[in-house]
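Thread: Newbie trying to understand structure tokens

Hi all, I'm a second-year student working on a class project, and my supervisor (Dr. K.) asked me to get a predicted structure for one chain before our next meeting. I've only ever worked with sequences, so writing a 3D structure as a token string is new to me. If someone could post the tokens and maybe explain what I'm looking at, I'd be very grateful. Here's the chain:
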Amino acid sequence: MKLRTFLGTLLLSAGLVGEVAAQQSTRRSYDNRLKPITNAKPLLADHPEFIEPVRLKARFEAPMLVDDADADLHVRAWRFSYNARGIIEMPNRLRARETAVVMVHPWGIDDGQGWQTPEPAGVCDFGWPDKNHLAAKHTRKVINPFLKSLRGKAAFIMYSLPGPEDAIRKKVYRSVNGKPSKTERATGLEELKAKLASFSYKAQPIPDKLSLSRDTPVIDYFKQFSGIDAGPRYNGAGFWELPIPVCADIDADPDDVVIYDAAGYAPLRDFLKKHGVRHVLLTGYATDMCFCRTTAGYENLSRDFNVFLVGDATLATFPANGDPRFATNAAISYASLNQLVTQVSWITSAK
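---
Reply by user tm_fold:
Sure, no problem. This is what the structure looks like when written as tokens:
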């Protein structure tokens, strides 16, 4: 009996040793040497109308981080470290077929598809139509060409949208659950158009009278007239239950995949892993909110994948400002504490 137990222990130990050895064989030692970069040019400077360039002069070069065999996609990236007291840049080599390009929340609002910001005081996406049109310009100028350059090379082009996979959008878009036929897509587009057109985009105006106490008028003022209220009062009941389309400023392809927030992160994670995806190039809106915290945001994805934030292919919300330049800079700069940041011009196909 003792001999049998002893032999069992030996076999178990051998198995554990083998498992540890297998894990070690998939790891490598990374030489974290930081070489100062002199006369470095500003980062994220290709589209200064959308994001204020990052101009910190304390910059370092680190060795290659991601180094895939047979890589066909070069992605230079950077992060910020208080401990290193500067920005650290490093090259990366990725397999495109193991890379997904994800666009967070390309809402089709005020773009002619029928979903509109309610009047006279409704709030949606970046605020009201003028701000939404500015974001649409960014989509057309920066994100759409980037998606087109990688379609057919990357494993997937993907978009995340609010809500569940409702009956209408299930006919319009491919998802992690399946792909509609050409006939289903045509039917779904007609149903989407009719559904969005049937809603009344009229709601209440801002209040012209408030009831304030003598002791705490500031508290009462903001309780009755907050800085942002996108609920039924100003947007109308049922506005957020409408099937939000992918924005018309993207030349979407039937093979592109839509992710639905209501399903949660697990289906997205499992879909990507099932198809061998290891890397994610993340684009979309809004840098300070949805881009980080929703289903396809980097707080989720960076737990399971090598994530690269495409810093000039995103916009932050910009309250009290006429453009998003400094807000986007601040949001990306904060994210760079624990995320890698790249830019469209730094993502190139291997020759």
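A couple of things are worth pointing out once you decode it. The longest strand covers residues 306-315. The domain at 94-349 is CATH 3.40.50.850 (Rossmann fold). Feel free to ask follow-ups in this thread.
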